[in-house]
Amino acid sequence: DMLDPERLIQCPLVKHHWIRARRFPYHLVKCKESNPEIAKKLATCPFNARHLVPQADLSNHIMKCNDKAFVEQDVVCRSSESSQEQLNNGSTWQAPPSAEDWET
Question: Half-sphere exposure of 50 toward its Cβ, with a 13 Å CA cutoff?
């Protein structure tokens, strides 16, 4: 179960580290500090900061990342909400007729 906070996740920095899902973000911070040479070779996924991949593989990971769909779906939802909100809150103000006659 992906939502289980007790499941074990393998550290992307040190392969023999297995961390509980609920502690994983904290472990990544500490492990990056403890292993700066390994951390320099890894890139962070723009869709999920828990995804650390070799820099050369980042573009391939971005194309296949499961979290990409969640971000794209959120952007589409927010965009459509914003458009609907603009329609609902649109101003009905109209400029009054002008008394000026530029021809005379």
Answer: 14
Distance CA 31, CA 14 (A): 8
Q: Cα(62)–Cα(48) distance, rounded to whole angstroms?
A: 10
Task: Report pTM.
Answer: 0.63
| Nearest residue to 31 via CA among 58, 11, 53, 54 | 11
Tokens of 34: 């403890």
Question: What are the tens digits of pLDDT across the range 31-86?
Answer: 999 999 999 999 999 999 999 999 999 999 999 998 887 777 766 677 666 555 55
Q: What angle do CA 34, 50, 36 make, to 5 degrees?
A: 20
3-state DSSP assignment of residue 104: coil
Structure tokens at 26: 């904290």
Nearest alpha-carbon partner for 71 in 53, 49, 87: 49
